[in-house]
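Ticket #4471: structure export looks truncated?
Reporter: QA, pipeline team
Priority: medium

Steps to reproduce: submit the single chain below to the structure queue and open the exported record.
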Amino acid sequence: MATAKKELFSEKVRAGSRTYFFDVKEAATGAKYLVINESKKVGESHEHNRIMIFEEDIPSFSEGLHKAVGFIQK
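Actual output as written to the record:
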């Protein structure tokens, strides 16, 4: 039996040849998680990549992302 997933938030960001999707979902258990999807055109088709960050990992993920972005923007 499939687990029901409820979409709580979605944001689409176009960046050149790539499109990013940031989706916050809620599992049937009530746990929230972030799904980041990347779609990019490769030849005549599209390549898709996905990463899921679970609610308990958001603080660490956010800290690491903030540090990486800060380094790039220096």
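Status: closed, not a bug. The export was complete when the record was re-opened. Leaving a note from the reviewer for reference: The longest helix spans residues 58-73.
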